[in-house]
Amino acid sequence: MNIFEKQKETQDKIKQALSNVKHLVAVGSGKGGVGKSTIAANLAISLAKLGFKVGLADVDIYGPSIPTLFNIENQEVAGREIEGKVYIEPIEKFGIKLMSIGFFVDNDKALIWRGPMASNTITQLISDTLWGELDYLIFDMPPGTGDIQLTISKELPISGAIFVSTPQELAVADVRRAVNMFNNKDINVPILGLVENMAYFTPKELPDNKYYIFGKNGIKNLIDELNLELLEQIPITEDISQTNDSGNPISLDSDALETKHFMSLASKINKKLNK
Ligand SMILES: Nc1ncnc2c1ncn2[C@@H]1O[C@H](COP(=O)(O)OP(=O)(O)OP(=O)(O)O)[C@@H](O)[C@H]1O
Ligand SMILES: [Mg+2]
């Protein structure tokens, strides 16, 4: 098989695997550690709470975090043979279909993967998973603008991308680069907007108080410059951090203050994609 036939075969496989998935949403950022996985996980849970069928694909080959966020680190993935080919079943937790590169490699090994190999692995992971029927498939992306991001945005029919940034100026400069990549005419993935994570600090005992510890202007400049919609401002709180660590993302708690931010984000995205 020559390289073009191989490419066509991959595209057909992806099409087939995602044939019953309505919307693919990428959660990206320019910079590491700004809260992409936190936003992706809570967005997935919130969409499920709105009544949608949701999947979450962790394609951060260099640092998968979905297994930790859902406390399924040592989960065995089951294979299923269909017409002589082996597919993989996503793990279901909190009503969400989860697939992570982290189920197959340990973190230390993933680090040495090179671009083309990483990209092939990701397209294979997506096309071999039995996603079934979904309203939303959320992608927890690696940070930056590397091979994986290019592959995902070019080879998969992404309905829209959301970007996560923290308020610091430095993070803002990196988001600008990532947004420009998705805006590129060869890629042309619609950008749904920006989520400002860690926008302000709110102590639990003073829920009405907002402390803008990283300032307010960085994000304002960015959304003005890139003409982006600010979809939501998520506070930095102890409970988000703790629930992440224990593998029970905050949005599972309907009474939590933070949950309403994620529910509002989910409704906005749903509205935008069903206009
Ligand atoms: N709003 C928040 N409040 C408190 N802690 C947060 C918040 N958002 C993220 N965190 C914490 O910050 C750290 C980084 O978050 P997360 O892993 O979601 O970022 P990321 O952008 O996915 O990182 P990476 O680039 O490594 O994939 C985690 O320890 C997480 O629990
Ligand atoms: Mg992450």
Polypeptide structure, described:
- The structure is a single chain.
- This protein is 40% helix and 22% strand.
- It has a single domain (17-273), classed as P-loop containing nucleotide triphosphate hydrolases (Rossmann fold, 3-Layer(aba) Sandwich), CATH 3.40.50.300.
- Strand 8, helix 7 and strand 9 form a beta-alpha-beta unit.
- The protein is built from ten helices and ten strands.
- With 275 residues, the protein is α/β, with parallel strands linked by helices.
- The chain has helices spanning 3-17, 36-49, 66-69, 107-110, 115-128, 147-155, 169-183, 217-226, 238-246, 257-273; strands at residues 21-28, 54-58, 79-82, 85-88, 91-93, 96-100, 134-140, 160-165, 191-201, 230-236.
- It is globular, with a radius of gyration of 18 Å.
- The strands form two sheets. The chain has an eight-stranded mixed sheet, sandwiched between helices. A two-stranded antiparallel sheet has the order 3-4.
Note the overall shape.
Answer: globular
Low-confidence stretches: none
Distance between the termini: 42 Å
Mean pLDDT: 91
Name the ligand types.
adenosine-5'-triphosphate, magnesium ion
Summary, kept brief:
By secondary structure, this protein is an alpha/beta fold. Helix content is 40%, strand content 22%.
How are the SSEs ordered, and which strands pair?
Elements lengths: L2 H15 L3 E8 L7 H14 L4 E5 L7 H4 L9 E4 L2 E4 L2 E3 L2 E5 L6 H4 L4 H14 L5 E7 L6 H9 L4 E6 L3 H15 L7 E11 L15 H10 L3 E7 L1 H9 L10 H17 L2
Parallel strand pairs: 1-7, 1-8, 2-6, 2-7, 8-9, 9-10
Antiparallel strand pairs: 3-4, 5-6
Helix pairs in contact: 1-5, 2-10, 5-6, 7-8
The protein binds adenosine-5'-triphosphate and magnesium ion.
